[in-house]
Write a structure and sequence with these properties.
Elements (H helix, E strand, L loop, with lengths): L5 E7 L2 H10 L13 E7 L7 E2 L1
Antiparallel strand pairs: 1-2, 2-3
């Protein structure tokens, strides 16, 4: 059995982040309904360069 050394990162959108994102990409705005939702990503400490959504 192989054991991986990894961490989990949880991202929860807040109003300032949504405002900032909408100012950067007005053609693809984030909806205010995202407030309170969270997304969790696995972060490996190995050769993987990007987090993996779960």
């Amino acid at each position: 059995m192989e054991i991986y050394n990894r961490s989990a990162i949880t991202v929860t959108a807040k109003k300032p982040f949504i405002d900032w994102n909408n100012s950067l990409t007005p053609e693809m705005p984030m909806n205010i309904n995202l407030l309170g939702e969270s997304h969790t990503y696995l972060a490996y400490s190995g050769d993987i360069d990007h987090p993996i959504p779960i």
